[in-house]
Structures are given as structure tokens and as C-alpha cells.
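Could someone model cytidine-5'-monophosphate with this protein?
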Amino acid sequence: MHKIIAIDGPASSGKTSLAKKLSKKLHAPILFSGKLYRAIAFEMIKKNIKISQSKKILKIINELNEDKLNNKNLFNSEIDRISSNIAAKPFVRNSLLKFQRIFPKKNLKNSKYVIIEGRDIGTIVFPDADFKIFVWADISIRAQRRYKQILKSDKKSSFNKVFADIVKRDNKDLNRKVAPLKPAENSVLLDTTYLDIEQSFNALKKIIFYGSRDFKSKSIFRV
Ligand code: C5P
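Reply:
Sure, complex below.
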């Protein structure tokens, strides 16, 4: 039987890099669930669809496929903003549940593990996941990481704007009524504030390979 690893956390906490490294190590398929919301936002911009046009958004959701998720143009500040706005809509989240829940069966092949990364994977999408990791980092560190990343493609970007954008996105993700970002009861908290990517990955490997944690219990652990 395969094991599901749920990795959740806020923007620029390091969860995507960690999930990628883990996927390589375990030869495990991986779903970056944020790309679902991003792909919807991309199509909305392309087709000039407003957030109030729920039928048109549902049509976009029904037409999502791997190609649309692999679009290289899903990462910019406009898509950050629209994706987190639509992520607060219950009909959007409900319609995306099926896509996420069938991902392991469709993609498992011979792998023993499957990784799903996002905001509500351990709480809503796979509440029975075998491993639940909540990746966190202090907001100023996350803004610095994001700023460094953005500078590679946009030399004119300002740290203050990046910081403000992350604050806004955090507020939306943490405070929305439906599926807010929060650690699942039985998750392990991995705080990467003072860790670089290798140190964070070592901590993650400890959790997955040597953890004596019982992920079915109710408490949140910190590493
Ligand atoms: O993870 P990523 O930054 O690509 O996600 C983009 C946006 O999609 C997030 O800001 C969040 O609002 C939303 N999201 C979500 N639930 C998920 C994954 C992403 O609400 N499981």
C-alpha cells in the first residue's frame, strides 16, 4: 500500500523546494496543489473572467489537465493575487478536491510514496495522510527568500512590495473561512527560519525515515 506525504505551509516557507527534493529521493510522484489555483487564475486572466463568474470558472476547472499545470507562466504577482482570491471560494475548493484525491491512484506507478504539497492537504484533502508536515518560517525570512527569487527575473522589484504581497497572501490564506492554512492536528511542524535548504531537508528526512511519530495521534510536534 502506498504512503501519502502531505506537506503544507505558507508562501516561501521552503515547502516546494523540500517537496521537490523529497520526490527525487523517493522517486515519488508529486502534486503541487497551488498550481491548480494558479492554472485557474491564468485562464481567468487569459479569458478576462471575473471572480463573480462562477459558471465560467467551473468550466475552467473541468478543463484542467497536466499540460495546464505544467505551464511555465503560472508564477507572477498577478497570479499570486488572483489564485489566493479564488482559493477562498468554497465551490472552487470543492471542485478541486476530486482532482487532488485521484492523483495518487493515477500517478503512483511503482512508487511507494506520493507527495502532495499545498495549504490544506493534511487538514482537508488527505486527512488520513501517513505523514503530515507543516513547514513554517518567519515572515521576514520568507519575504527575503521570495525577493531573492524574484530578483532573478525582475531586477527592479522592491523588497517592501514583496514583503507586503506576502503579508496580504498570508492574511488571505490564514483567515479565509474555508480550508484556512493551519497545521493539521497530527502534523509535525518544521520551522525553517534558521535553516538552509540542506538543513531543512535533513530535518524532513529524519521525520520521514526515522520519525517515531505516530501521525494518527492528535498532537503537533516540532522538530
Ligand atoms: O502554493 P502556491 O503559492 O503555488 O499557491 C498559490 C495560492 O493557491 C496560495 O496563495 C493559496 O491561496 C492557494 N492554495 C490553496 N490551497 C492549496 C494550495 C494553494 O488555497 N492546497
